[in-house]
Amino acid sequence: MRVSTIRLLAGSALILAALVSASHGLEYVKVRQNDKEVTLQGKLVVQADDGGLMLLTADGQLHSMQPADFVSRRSDDLPLVPLKQEQVAKELLATLPAGFEVHTTARYVILHNTSRAYAQWCGALFERLYAGFVNFWKNKGFTLHEPEFPLVCIVFADQASYERWAKAELGEATRNVIAYYSLKTNLVTMYDLTGTESLRRANDRRGSAAQINQMLAQPNAEKMVATIVHEATHQIAYNCGLQTRFADIPLWVSEGIAVYFEAPDLSNSKGWRSIGEVNRLRIGDFRKYTMSRPSESLKSLIVDDKRFRDPRQAVDAYAEAWALNYFLIRQKPKEYKAYMQLMATKQPLIWSEPAERLKEFQDIFGDLSNLDADFLKYMRKVR
Fold this sequence. Notes:
- The chain is of the alpha+beta class and about 375 residues long.
- The chain has 3 domains: about 1-75, Roll (SH3 type barrels); about 85-130 and about 145-215, Glutaredoxin (3-Layer(aba) Sandwich); about 280-380, no CATH class.
- It has helices at about 85-95, 115-140, 160-170, 210-215, 220-240, 250-260, 280-290, 295-305, 305-310, 315-330, 335-345, 355-365, 370-380, and strands at about 1-5, 20, 25-35, 35-50, 55, 60-65, 70-75, 100-105, 110, 150-155, 180, 185-190, 350.
- The strands form 3 sheets. Strands 2, 3, 4, 5, 6 and 7 form a 6-stranded antiparallel beta sheet that branches.
- The protein is globular, with a radius of gyration of 21 Å.
């Protein structure tokens, strides 16, 4: 088992260290950031033995700090009080470019500088997804909780402004990503799909409800809508107790679940309706992959996340992750529940070695070779 220091910047290496228990009160940490002193107030999630901290603030964001940046630190026994929707909206609006407005639903805050109709479409999509997600896991015997923080999505009017904003977090990968969920900020960020050149015509009136439905009925919209649902699924999973941010959840699980939920229904006015339908995009990729699939494929998917991070293998990894979740949910429901309950106990920044991951899996699902044979046999029948 590997334990990491508090170093969460995108793409940075994680350095080994031990962790000590976090307190339940509030921490007040003054740190030096970009030649300025900033005071952060929040709940201590993890403290490394080198003094590094991971702090959860009232807006739901996670902050990593190194001892070298500390100016002062104190603590008390007061509980963390999450910000309300209007408070979160006010804080984030102060950081966004001018022109953003707020649309709220029961659980979501949609910050947008596009049409109100599109913001409302997003809100309805997310609420429908949330209800479906919770009911799905409830029927599987899981007890999830209401989100501690408002679920927030930022919607930019066009791809160019979205890329300018997201580049600070995603770097050059931004141009290939139409939406993303951030483990650090707990935000989903995206842009208005009706502004995409491939979906609109010169005489289209952007942003109306009728136009949204018309555009999303086009075949090339399917992957885009699927991506939005995929990222929103991640946000729900990490806010309702199914998974913990920065815990060692294998990507075949976290990404496989998001892919399982992402299948859009473009005949529906909200773009998404049902859970667990065959994902036509992924099953095609999986069938193509099985034509040259290595015998150790399932093991490689389980023991580490390398295939997901390799652009040459990522498409096949996502397809196999969807297929494996699809198979286990239907054919091994008791074992799948036990495995997911184990995943829910994982704590931040404690990483399992490949042998540990494999043992966890086989302790619940049994011999890998027999399971793999059953898996392939079952998936050949899926239509």
